[in-house]
Amino acid sequence: MRAFVVRADSLAKVARRLGLGALMKLGKGEEQAGGRARPSLLADLFEAVAGAVFLSRGYDAARTFVLWALEESLAGLSSPKATADPKTTLQEHLQARTKCAPTYRLVQDAGPDHAKVFVSEVVHRGKVLGKGSGTSKKASEQAAAEEALRALGVPPFA
After folding, report:
1. Model's pTM, two decimal places?
2. What are the angstrom distances between the C-alpha of 19 and each of 6, 35, 69, 152?
3. What is the pLDDT of residues 92-135, one digit of tens each?
4. What is the percentage of the chain residues whose pLDDT exceeds 90?
5. Domain boundary among 80, 107, 136
6. Contacts by 15-21, CB closer than 8 A, 24 or more apart
7. Looking at the structure, do residues 47 and 14 belong to the same domain, yes or no?
8. Are residues 56 and 107 in the same domain?
9. Separation CA 150–CA 116 (nearest Å)
10. Whether residue 96 is found in the same domain as residue 76
11. 60, 80, 100: which is the final residue of a domain?
12. What range defines the domain where residue 70 resides?
């Protein structure tokens, strides 16, 4: 459950809701590349703000801030399935039906080091079920799994 709440996309969503992106100080290149909307930067910024609250006001204030900021994410933890990421959901779905786990393969790794784009495919029994891209291998695999779940009609991605 902790991993669900503190994963980068959850923290980025909170940072967006708090309007933290507008407060970031970015270089010209990062600004032009859309850095204010980049989930990894927004998640890092939220963590930095929480750390600053801790350093300036102490543990209790930081705990209060984090619980307040993550209240919406924490409320979504009513069932174990709500915390499953697309890769986990896909693996559970496929293994329950075929006893075979899916595999992931990186099919593209392009762009400069500061703005890499990864493309992955999820494969099951020799068949490509989905393809996805992201700014990390993990993100591209999650996107591929989400596409596969949609194609298979598996909730909550149906």
Report:
1. 0.54
2. 18, 14, 12, 36
3. 999 999 999 999 999 999 888 888 899 999 999 999 999 999 98
4. 63
5. 80
6. 15/42, 15/43, 15/45, 15/46, 16/42, 17/72, 18/46, 18/69, 20/45, 20/46, 20/49, 21/45
7. yes
8. no
9. 26
10. no
11. 80
12. 2-80
